[in-house]
Amino acid sequence: MSNFLDLAGIGAGPFNLAVAALLRDKSLSHRFFEAKAEFSWHPGLMLPGAMMQTSYLKDLVTPVDPTSPCSFLAYLVENKRFYDFLHAEQRTVTRREFADYLAWAARRLDSIQMSSRVQSVVDNGEYFELDVHGPSGRERILAKNLCVAAGKKPNIPECSRPLLSDNCFHALEIALRNPDVSGKRVAVIGGGQTGAEVVINLLGKHWGRPQQVTWVSRRSNYLPLDETPFTNDWFTPEYVDVFRQLSPRRREEVVAEQKLASDGISPDTLKELYQLFYRLVHLEKDSEGVTLMPNRELVDMSSRGDYQLQLQNHLLGDTDGAEWINADIVILCTGLSEALPPCLAPLQERIPRDGEGRLLLDDSFATKLSGDDSDRRLYFLGTGRTSHGIAEPQLSLSAWRAAQVVNDLHGSTVYDNQQSGNLMKWITPQAQQIAVA
Fold first, then answer.
1. N or C terminus of the chain: which is more exposed, having fewer CB within 10 Å?
2. Was domain 4-151+339-436 assigned CATH 3.40.50.720?
3. Pseudo-torsion of CA 99, 100, 105, 110, nearest 10°?
4. Tens-digit pLDDT profile for residues 150-160
5. What CATH architecture is 154-224+264-332?
6. What is the pLDDT of residues 109-132, one digit of tens each?
7. How far apart are CA 167 and CA 180, in angstroms?
């Protein structure tokens, strides 16, 4: 296996898997290095019944290469479940099944190298030089281009960081921790899909019967994911093209306006929750067992045996809306944040960023080191929310995003990456000229 590559990938999560799948039978030499011994996708969030919020047809390859052997439909056929799947009439699939599909695809791709941690990446003037620690020892890899998709890190509120423990942790770990909440007061912080799923499992006694569950959300209510047809048109290549033409300031405004198109709670989950609350309060007469607290932000925490949480009630506006709750267990459903892998530290100062510290990426999710006049490229996947729109960190456009990378690497249209017939006219030719100018 050559140590000279056209493309080296750091990380083998869904985004780089899509690139690997589209490069599967192409002539460019490539390898993707993943530190984990075997593929897994957020194993700590594999809760019973947790569903995907994205169609299974928006898999690694289908939108740009529907005949690929790495498609979700190929996975169903190979695993002898195609007809059963059709007869189940599922609009979406469970998170567990989609993770199994991703692991299946990873096993089919020879370019995925597991148990291989990239310790550092340096620029030797001609190549990116990777120091890789793998199953057979240490390797020196020289790559012309890099594709970085190493995932995100848990977003931990500042006040919670000193108190992280077996009883105060991020939800990303909950299925692995399998906490015993029997007789405990549990505070769930975060009003998105993960918070909703954790509350369902707490009230369903999946980890024992809690004494009390308090669900805290900064949002004004437990708000639904907007997955209606016209909203879904934001998750198309055509819309990304238009979004790219907006000014940086306007992009930020648009992304903020569209938040619930990607970060809300699935309507089916909300209905399940409300029915569960109804049964608890009116049939089981357990109105004290659950407390819903929207409009609250966690602003401080302390620990003296149990946890004391200070909340700010934003419904009260500028008045003193301080409130306090006590809990034995605190589960942080506070999302994930972008972070570049530590191995890129030697390159950090030369990676172009804007005034807010965000990566400056072109249409193909690529950038170049400052001062580099060669044709080497660095691709960053999953980090361009304000450069490419709300679809960029999502699975929805994984195949399209990967095709952008593959086409750019080849310098030609390997994959026809545009769809015609979009009903939405986001911008007229005249306005487009003004936006570009």
1. C
2. no
3. 100
4. 889 999 999 99
5. 3-Layer(bba) Sandwich (3.50)
6. 999 999 999 999 999 999 999 999
7. 10
